[in-house]
UniProtKB/TrEMBL annotation:
Record's protein name: NAC domain-containing protein
Membrane topology: Single-pass membrane protein
Recorded GO MF terms: transcription cis-regulatory region binding
Compartments reported by the entry: Membrane; Nucleus
Keyword Oxidoreductase carried by entry: no
Domain NAC positions: 15-164
Organism: Hibiscus syriacus
Length: 194
C-alpha cells in the first residue's frame, strides 16, 4: 500500500482515526532496516529513500511520505563515506553538518545486540565554527553478522529526524515513547514504557 499526504487525513478507509507510526528502536532495526537491506518488501510504503545528507533539516519534512503532524520523519538513506576507502561518514549538507553527540547505543532484542543507534545534532555553518540548532537525528545501523551483511550494512541507514524542542511523543497519546530529558546540560534519550 502506498501512502500519500491525502490518504493520511482525507480517506478514513486507509488510516483509522488516531493512527500514528511509532515503531520501537527494535522494530526500526529488525523489521524496517533489515527488510530494506535484504531487499524485501515492506507491508506499507511509508519510509522514503532519500539521501538525508543532501538536504538541510528544515527541507526533510517535505520529503517524508508519512505526514501525520507528529514532527518526526523517517528515511532510508545511503551511507555516504567521507573518503572512498574509509569508515568515516560524510554528514555535511549545503548549509551545515550533522555532528554525533553522546555515545552510540546498542539496540537489543532478547539480550542480543541487533543494531546501533547514533544521535546527531545539526550545526549550521562549517566546522568547527558551526552554530548548534534544535534539529536532532537518530541514525540506525544493523549489526554485522557475516560478510554478506557487512557489505549490505555499509550501504543503507535508517534515520529519524525531529526538532528536540518538540517532543515527538507528546502528541501521540501513547504511553510508550522516546522522551528527551535534560540532565547536566545535555539532552538524553530515554525509552519510556508505561
Amino acid at each position: 500500500m502506498t501512502v500519500t499526504a491525502d490518504s493520511c487525513f482525507g480517506d478514513d478507509k486507509v488510516w483509522p482515526p488516531g493512527f500514528r507510526f511509532h515503531p520501537t528502536d527494535e522494530e526500526l532495526v529488525l523489521y524496517y532496516l533489515k527488510r530494506k537491506i535484504c531487499r524485501r518488501k515492506l507491508k506499507l510504503d511509508i519510509v522514503r529513500e532519500t539521501d538525508v545528507y543532501k538536504w538541510d533539516p528544515e527541507e526533510l519534512p517535505a520529503q517524508s511520505i508519512l505526514k501525520t503532524g507528529d514532527r518526526q520523519w523517517f528515511f532510508f538513506s545511503p551511507r555516504d563515506r567521507k573518503y572512498p576507502n574509509a569508515a568515516r561518514s560524510n554528514r555535511a549538507t549545503r548549509q551545515g553538518y550533522w555532528k554525533a553527540t553522546g555515545k552510540d547505543r546498542a539496540v537489543t532484542c532478547n539480550s542480543r545486540t541487533v543494531g546501533v543507534k547514533k544521535t546527531l545534532v545539526f550545526y549550521r555553518g562549517r566546522a568547527p565554527n558551526g552554530e548548534r540548532t534544535d534539529w536532532v537525528m537518530h541514525e540506525y545501523t544493523l549489526v554485522k553478522r557475516n560478510s554478506r551483511d557487512a557489505r549490505m550494512q555499509s550501504s543503507i541507514i535508517l534515520s529519524v529526524n525531529y526538532t528536540k524542542g518538540l517532543d515527538p511523543t507528546l502528541k501521540m497519546g501513547s504511553s510508550i515513547g522516546l522522551h528527551l530529558k535534560k540532565k547536566n546540560g545535555m539532552m538524553r534519550n530515554i525509552l519510556v514504557n508505561g
